[in-house]
Amino acid sequence: MTDFLKMSGLNYSYGNDKITSGSFCLKNISAEISEGDFTAVIGKNGSGKSTLIRLIAGINLPDSGSIVFRGKNILSYGKKELAGLISYLPQSNEFMHFDSDVKDFLLLGRYPYKNFTDFRYSIADRDIVMESVKITGIENLLNKKMNELSGGQRQKALLTLSLVQLGTEDDMRGKLLIADEPLTYLDINHQIEIMNLLKKLNENNLTVITVIHDLNLALKYSNRSILLRQGEIVKITDTKDVITEEMIKEHFFIDSKILNYEKNFFINYLPN
Hints:
By secondary structure, the chain is of the alpha/beta class. Helix content is about 30%, strand content about 25%.
């Protein structure tokens, strides 16, 4: 799909006096995301990564500029219509104290498909939950409480919730999953599990945008990257052309050597 996601002249700041308060700003953000991309959003802490994806998800509204999704201004979508097309996966610690059973929690993902008077979940709703659970492999967690799960388990449950929300069609073309630092606080095995799941969904034509700190994982899994610095886009292009030894030195102040092993790239960070 052409013009899958297009941001034009986005500006955003926090605070009551939004433009002159001196609070954090995103400035003149213009970029395009193609359908089927796996896009990593990278940059130092405080560069605006999470703020940017919250704008794309429609959680925050820009002060100026526009976001066009599937040829239509994102502000023109109804909330339920948009929720069936874009799912936002927050950091897992936002649900640390949620005491619902996992199976009941996942049913919440069906809200875009219910009318205001329909409070019941149908057999079809429950079937979609089970189809999503099979994709992410969390059948053994269904009867556990969300607040009893480990960080990795909770993040897999949240990813399953996104699938329930978007639907589990064989082809997820035209839909977008946005993940805000999905690997935070996870052990390396759970990090790889989450990234493998995201890649599997991307290969099934789901467009993915994720904030990620580990540049090696960004190199391995994403085909496109957006590099932010102080609220501005420094570069957006193929990941291998964004994450370079020169970029790592300039933006992260670390010497490195990027190695190519059997067409896989790895960053070897060098001592100062």
